[in-house]
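We emphasize that the prediction below concerns an isolated chain of 178 residues; any contacts that depend on oligomerization or on bound cofactors are therefore not represented. The input was used exactly as deposited, without trimming of termini.
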Amino acid sequence: MTRYRFFERQMAFYAACHRDKRNRMTHYFGVPIIIFSLLLAGSLWRGSVAGLDLSGAHAMALAAQVLWLSLDLAIGLALLVLLTPVFVLADTVATSLPAATVWWLFAVSFAGGWVLQLIGHHFEGRRPALVDNLFQILIAPLYLTAELLFSLGLCRVLAGRIEACRRALETGETHPSD
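Result of the prediction step, given as a token string:
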């Protein structure tokens, strides 16, 4: 049996739970909306570090980005490019509006993002991947970014390895934690 990297196994597990195109489409909107909501809430907690105005969103984004880059440099960098405008928007909104309004926007966008994903899983007929593997919450943005790169003909070797691993998972040849 072929050995797959941790990243490939996690991506394959996510892929196996997201086969329906409608489900993936709801995730293309739902995942960024949830990320936006979390960054929005994090942007409310502000402080100064070494003269820099920083927020909880900075800490969350840095931690997530370090993880994503450590899992796959190319996809992590692409995700950094894609999420930078989301971060800037969340920070701008949080610093421009009253805190009560920002919390209201957080609640609506957080709930709305999850509702979109649950609708997608209704189409899929499968429960969300994170029910079986909570780490999938952090894999979702990487997977969606990777899928975008794959559709552009990029990262073909990785796409092939993830697909082979997904097939192995579905036939019981390997397990996501192997």
